[in-house]
Design brief:
mainly alpha; 3-stranded antiparallel sheet; two-stranded antiparallel ribbon; about 60% helix
Length: about 700
Amino acid sequence: MDMEEKPKYGEPKKYDASFKGPIQNRGCTDIICCVFFIVAIVGYVAVGILAWTHGDPRKVIYPTDSMGQYCGQGNLEKQPLLFYFNMMKCASPMVLLEFQCPTPQVCVEKCPNRTMTLVNAYVNPFDWKEYKQFCREDPGQKSVPQILQEKLCPAYLISSKPFLQRCFPSLGKKGEVITVGDQETFSDGEKTRNAKDLVAGMKNATVVMEGRQVAMKIFEDYTKSWYWILICLLIAVVLSLIFIVLLRYLAGIMVWVMILMVIAVIAYGIAHCSIKYVNLKDSAGSNITLQQLGFQPDFSVYLHIRQTWLAFIIILAIVELIIILLLIFLRNRIRIAVELIKEASRAIGFVMSSLFYPIFTFFLLTIVIAYWGVTAVFLSTSSEPVYKVFNETECSYARQTCIPENYSLSAMKAECKRSECLFAFYGGETPYHKYLIGLQFYNVFLFFWCANFVTALGQMTLAGAFASYYWALNKPGDIPAFPLCASLGRSLRYHTGSLAFGSLILAIVQIIRVLLEYIDHKLKGAENKFAKFLLCCLKCCFWCLEKFIKFMNRNAYIMVAIYGKNFCRSASDAFLLLMRNVIRVVVLDKVTDFILFLGKLLIVGLVGIFAFFFFSGQTDAFKGAAPSLHYYWVPILTVLVGSYLIAHGFFSVYAMCVDTLFLCFLEDLERNDGSSERPYLMSDNLLNVLKKKNQAN
């Protein structure tokens, strides 16, 4: 006799009269992974302690003089500015390689406010008193040749201004001629030079600090606009709460209102961009291309280019078209999705504390991100100062490491009379410094693992609470007291290992994606097209793999929360259940996700439009209140990202609720048949949409 063929995607769930929702009598799962996770956390703490012991963030905050001392700190507290003896030495290509000018540097209280030479200042007591402030040490009664030979003082001073805690020549222009201190020339103690000779040195000296300049301006913008940013984010919170409350009572109407408002907001964006595009038609310089313009730190420059607005129009038009086409083809499925959202609204109504759970998740993620960031900074600044030989002429010891304390008596100094042992950069040759890159890698990997663990904990906790609601025969009587706290306790007590297992898999994929991005960055200038193509394929594959693992983890955590089985068994059960109902998954669950995404998009769009008109000052109503900023796009982008995170936090509760109810709904259809002995537990409205019903007792 032929054996009965086994179903391709497993046996459907059988009716179980004792099943009343999340299993209470359960045991610990994935214990080995739990132990491994705890050991990894202990190692992470050890790395943090090691980094905090050796690291010093002052290395990236304050400038360092030739002796490796921090300007503005300790004994140099009243000397916060760095002064270069010879700015023209900064024109050396080695500046770009080692980020240090091959000229003595000292910390000073203020920058020189006039141009003079050592020879002239030496004979004038008043000038000499001012000049000595810029010497490495008091020259005493030494002659000018001795001072220059020992490089105790600069050969000349140039009128300078502080910039990024450093003294740079005050260059200006008279017509097309470059000037310094209103003079076209200056003396370096040996000959008269043109002011333009300083440009190359200044350019190289500042190339490393341009990013810091932009960062400082951005920081200044935040200090001026943080109050208004918080107000905008508060508006996003209020809008999100309003939408959640309205969804609770008017889910059907709100879904269609959301859809229409998203279409209207995008249509307004297209109209606004079109008006800007037309108005710039006759403006001077508006027809140059973005490629010709290149990268500009001031993003407002791009808003004066027609091509920018044309790009906005095309992007918004494509998004609008996609949304309209999806609505046309999915209009019938939206009805079922609306019922699922109504059911989710009722579930959240019975578990109102779930709306505030994202705050707990956000708090834990903030700790993880802060720990990673602080550890990364301390690791990157835990290197030691490295000193190298700098010489004005050819020298066999040039750019070799040296020790400043006994350099004057060394063979290097004996051979290279005019050489100096100056601070070059931060590094180190100890075993700790050799393994710094490995510690940084461990820091990043544990960051991904811990962040994924926190997210997974939130998903499992919410899933357990909402499953308790769905499987309660008599609502709310059969719903356990404090379902969210009970679910959180079960997740931490029994399933820390399962959470760590799923998070580990996702973290491995994410760290591989980071490595691929790093390799791609290194191969930017490569001409090997096959390597670029292969790398692009790998990045695409791992992106898809990450999305799939996130989807599977999410459903696996739901099954763990309900049945208390280990991660692999739960992932298998969830996958088989979804495959047995693949049509419903594609056309129902994803439609619901799309509707919730439109809700986030609407909140971000409304708050973003308000932020744009407020911070850009393009509306007369806000011109008096809006702060004066370097880059008004800084608070706008912050508001957009913050609004999305806030909306995502609130709507993620809905999304998790929908996903949990969806899996429970699929199991309900398999376990029960609507008879009086095995009634469906879904709502009557959902039964009507599915054309099913419960038989009367």
